[in-house]
Amino acid sequence: MGAKFHIPKTKISLAMQDMFMRQRFPQFHFIWKNGVGVWKGSLQPREISPAYSILIEYNIGRIPEVWVISPELRPDAPHIYRKNNSLCLWWPKEWRWSYSQDISRTIVPWVALWLYYYELWLDTGEWLGPAAPHGPDLRGSN
């Protein structure tokens, strides 16, 4: 039997998404880029970590996409989509994005965790975070 998802029906506008982001992550700044909402800001997963510059693009009706702008990730980093170098943050069979989801309560914390596990991977050579089976679309999957 497949997973069942409860997807709330209330759409969160880009203006509301930005308000939530400013409340929870004031270091992220919002701009419109070709009709798409874009947040750029920094996350530092550990005290000894560099501050990672993050870019989040969201077009309502599509799945948010996230990139690490700097420092540059290793080319063989796991859990990155080859097609555009965006981060793989969840497994669609376990969770589905909906326009009723709050980016500041889902995507941004997951990016911080991804960065934390990325740094552990740099230290140990093993991805110690949650992982899902991946097809050839992802590089370096463990």
Q: Could you characterize the architecture of this molecule?
A:
There is one protein chain. The chain has 142 residues and is an alpha+beta fold. Helices cover 20% and strands 21% of the residues. It contains two helices and six strands, in the order αβββββαβ. The protein has helices at residues 14-24, 107-124; strands spanning 29-33, 36-43, 52-58, 65-70, 80-81, 138-139. A four-stranded antiparallel beta sheet has the order 1-2-3-4. A two-stranded antiparallel ribbon has the order 5-6. The longest helix has 18 residues, at 107-124. The two termini are 26 Å apart. The mean pLDDT is 87.
SSE order and pairing:
Layout: H1 14-24, E1 29-33, E2 36-43, E3 52-58, E4 65-70, E5 80-81, H2 107-124, E6 138-139
Antiparallel strand pairs: 1-2, 2-3, 3-4, 5-6
Radius of gyration: 15 Å
Overall helicity: 10-25%
Structural class computed from helices and strand pairing: alpha+beta
Strand order of the largest sheet: 1-2-3-4
- Form type: globular
Low-confidence stretches: none
How far the N terminus sits from the C terminus, by CA atoms, comes to 26 Å
Mean pLDDT: 87
Strand percent estimate: 15-25%
Number of DSSP E strands: 6
Written as H for each helix and E for each strand, in order along the chain, the element string is HEEEEEHE
Figure out the total of helices. 2
Q: Please summarize the sheet with the most strands.
A: 4 strands, antiparallel
